[in-house]
Specification:
Order of helices and strands: HEHEHEHEHEHEHHHE
CATH superfamily of the domain at 2-23 and 89-118 and 138-258: NAD(P)-binding Rossmann-like Domain
Number of strands: 7
Helix content: 40-55%
CATH class of the domain at 2-23 and 89-118 and 138-258: Alpha Beta
Strand order of the largest sheet: 3-2-1-4-5-6-7
């Protein structure tokens, strides 16, 4: 087990996970803490982040610190960067998980929903990444690059909207930006990858997955027969952020139970 423990270890690394008070962000943060990392947890709800950090600190592996951070404005990002710099001078891992959505029928979808969603999911992600690049570069080495994981979505890989037109477009943009930054930052020894999750239980999907009955119903539409679980996110996070994933960059990892290769076409079978 010593080899596996070392291969997938994030012990001694410092990470920032945005939007980590709930959902996928919390799942990723939990995996990192379990792996021995020091995890900074930030979202607009600072009290919730502090509470989650206290809960993660009972796991007895790494450690967590929770505080407020807003990536929806340039001023908010500057304040968040200042908070991070006040806590650490190097950053090994950045997980850009914070995001927003907007749902409405095609005929009623508002103009304002585009600026709001793209502003957080794309512009905010880019600006925070750029501002924290010096801390990431300082932590990076040839043998152990710094890591960035962006949160995309299966909705960014498949032509579907379900009323979330600006959200699905924003996640496709996140995937493209991930590849762009992977190319640009490789020389600085920083890897950039993205998760493209299918359905998981989170605040954003609570309308469809809040109860076990709802989750089972949604899971029946997934080829593998269930929605995602916390360990699915934790395992992928530890892989990409440990030595095991040090040679992977520019990847869009489909954590979707097969939805990204699902289609309704058949040729010869009923």
């Amino acid at each position: 087990m010593a080899y596996l423990d070392e291969l997938f270890s994030v012990a001694g690394k410092t990470a920032l996970v945005t939007g980590a008070a709930t959902g996928i962000g919390r799942m990723a943060a939990t995996g990192l803490v379990q792996g021995g990392a020091r995890v900074l947890i930030a979202s607009r709800k600072g009290a919730d982040c502090a509470r989650v950090a206290e809960e993660l600190n009972t796991l007895g592996k790494g450690s967590a610190e929770g505080f407020a951070g807003d990536v929806s404005t340039e001023e908010g990002i500057a304040a968040l960067v200042g908070e991070v710099r006040g806590r650490t001078d190097t950053l090994h891992i950045l997980i850009n998980n914070a995001g927003v959505s907007w749902g409405a029928e095609y005929e009623d979808f508002p103009y304002s929903a585009w600026a709001k969603v793209l502003g957080v999911n794309v512009a905010g992600l880019f600006h925070l990444t750029r501002e924290l690049t010096p801390l990431l570069e300082k932590a990076a080495s040839d043998q152990d690059p710094a890591r960035i994981i962006n949160l995309g979505s299966v909705m960014g890989t498949q032509p579907m909207a379900d009323g979330a037109y600006s959200y699905t477009a924003s996640k496709a943009a996140v995937h493209h930006l991930t590849r762009t930054l992977a190319n640009e930052l490789a020389a600085r020894r920083i890897t950039v990858n993205a998760f493209a999750p299918g359905p998981f239980q989170s605040r954003m999907t609570a309308f469809a997955t809040a109860t076990d009955e709802q989750a089972d119903k949604v899971g029946k539409r997934v080829p593998i027969g269930r929605i995602g679980a916390p360990d699915d996110i934790a395992g992928a996070t530890l892989y990409l952020c440990s030595r095991a994933g040090s040679y992977v960059t520019g990847a869009i990892l489909p954590l979707d139970g097969g939805q990204s290769v699902q289609h309704g076409m058949t040729l010869f079978k009923e």
